[in-house]
Amino acid sequence: MNTMNKRKSMIIDGRPVAIEGEKNILDVIRKAGIDMPTLCYHSNLSTYGACRMCVVEGNRGEIMASCSTPPKAGMEIKTNTPRLQKYRKMVLELMLADHCRECTTCEKNFDCELQTMAMKFGLKDIRFENYSIGDEKAERDNSSYSIVRSPNKCIICGDCVRMCSEIQNVGAIDFAYRGSNVEVTTAFDMPLAETNCVNCGQCAAICPTGALVIKSNVDEVWKDIYDPEVKVVAQIAPAVRVALGDEFDLPKGTNVMGKIVGAMKRLGFDEVYDTSTAADLTVIEEANELLAKIKSGNTEMPLFTSCCPAWMKYAEDNHPELVPYISSCKSPMGMMSSVIKAKDARDNEGNKKAKKTKVVAVMPCTAKKFEIHREDQMLDGEQATNHSITTVELADMIRSAGLRFEDVLPEAVEMPYGIASGAGVIFGVTGGVTEAAIRYVIGDRNQIADIAFAGVRGFEGLKEVKIPLDEAGENILSVAIVSGLKNTENLIKAIQAGEVHYDFVEVMACEGGCIAGGGQPFVIGRAKEERSAGIYEADRMSGVRMSADNPVTEALYKNLLTGKAAHHLLHYK
Ligand code: SF4
Ligand code: SF4
Ligand code: SF4
């Protein structure tokens, strides 16, 4: 090895590999094309080094965890030796000894990293007694609308704990007890529903086992589909169309909206609509709320968006002083369900034979399962949205019905809600709500491209945009776009300290927005780039780019959302 190589590279399995700023050996190993096993390393979280699966052997025979060892020039390591294989198998056996092993009935069956790892390492027998049997930890926590906890499937990797505290700033779950009694649990072992959990589902998305899973509502949906007295109406959120394909091995970010409609019709849904249509209503209502706020001179605090239920709960739990500044608009899901129910009620008035309408929302989101039960989201005392299922649950339904998704013929969304603007579709990605609202506020179709390049797009945790509202540039709209609740907390502190001032703040609890929601198929990096590219392409290809130009919303304001009905159906306060 020459001096240059020695200074900048290390030896992995006898081959030199450049060190280019990686913080640990694991990242260098992965760059070298080796799929190093790990159950607890995620580059966006702090390093915990708990699972010990990523161990490597140094040239003096020393064994070290590659995730918590920084690379050094000239360092020599081996990633695959008989000793390491034996060590990893032993670690897996010990994990499985304390693990409920009812794989066939586990929600994570075939999608469990522990199971995959056991298969990869050819584990056929576990030499230790299964001491999870009869364990009091086995009791499931089913209290939350969004998440089910099965502590006896936990391998103490700590991924959820770090996700909940480092990215989401919530800390609803943490380690408790010591030594072999260590557990991941809530404060005082409270049911999750009674904690400050915001239902974002990011812990379940990252959990490598079935210890934290998204609660499934698929059985209730099937029950309604099979009920001849019920008309089952579905709505599909913007971010679902660019993620469902991941479940069926389609290229990441492929827009499968037409296939979703086709598949859902075959599953037995009576009507299938696009939540993006209601997002157009949200844009109009929220932008008008913002303009009225600015006009009134009440601009000391910004108007915060209200479409993310995890953010709403976070604000209520941690910043009740901000609640008055959160928009009064229902989320697009809430608006869509309310409009569907109100129109059906009007159309069926006096018809005793009319079926009962139930709305199923297909969402990228686990917090929506919580939102539909909120008192302030009820419509005339009843749930406006009857069930909220995730993208992954829809894939489960398609599979369980035996539909071959690749063969499903695309179908169009039907009238009377069959048109959505591109502005409504971009709600699925961070910055989309703001971009759509700015289009509406400026109202100039020639500026759509300029708005896209004004700083609203991209995945930075905090984006700031200043938009002149008049040609002279005397009135400037100042906007912040934030995703991830830790980023949100930092922004709130800066606003409250008077360090920054905004007119409008878009908050999405999930980093990157709903395309990376807890209910989306979990692929490495969440395919954010590909999914957002799919969303922006759908916008570009849309015949209607501005919410105000959507003939469906125009017709709704003329025929249904008249007088007090608009506020009653579209606002929660
Ligand atoms: S619940 Fe899941 S993510 Fe959390 S520590 Fe246990 S196995 Fe890891
Ligand atoms: S759902 Fe979100 S807030 Fe709740 S425990 Fe999981 S990561 Fe934390
Ligand atoms: S960002 Fe989207 S997916 Fe995530 S919690 Fe909020 S609404 Fe749900």
Q: List the ligand species.
A: iron/sulfur cluster
Average pLDDT value? 94
Main β-sheet, spatial strand arrangement: 2-1-5-3-4
Helix content bin: 25-40%
Largest sheet composition: 5 strands, mixed
Structure commentary:
This protein is an alpha/beta fold. The chain folds into 3 domains: 3-80, Ubiquitin-like (UB roll); 91-214, Alpha-Beta Plaits; 229-570, Rossmann fold. The chain has helices at 3-8, 25-31, 82-97, 113-120, 159-167, 202-206, 218-226, 257-267, 275-296, 309-318, 332-347, 367-371, 391-400, 422-425, 432-442, 448-456, 485-496, 528-540, 551-559, 565-570; strands spanning 9-12, 15-18, 55-58, 63-65, 76-78, 147-149, 173-176, 183-186, 212-214, 230-236, 271-274, 303-304, 356-363, 378-379, 382-383, 387-390, 462-468, 476-483, 504-508. The strands form 6 sheets. Strands 2-1-5-3-4 form a 5-stranded mixed sheet, sandwiched between helices. The protein has a 4-stranded parallel sheet with strand order 11-10-13-16, with helices on both faces. A 4-stranded mixed sheet has the order 12-19-18-17, with helices on both faces. α9 (275-296) crosses α15 (432-442). The termini are far apart. The model has no long low-confidence stretch (mean pLDDT 94). Bound molecules: iron/sulfur cluster (3 copies). Residues 147, 163-164, 168, 170, 172-173, 197-203 line the site of one iron/sulfur cluster. One iron/sulfur cluster is lined by residues 200, 308, 310, 364-365, 367, 508-510, 513-514, 517.
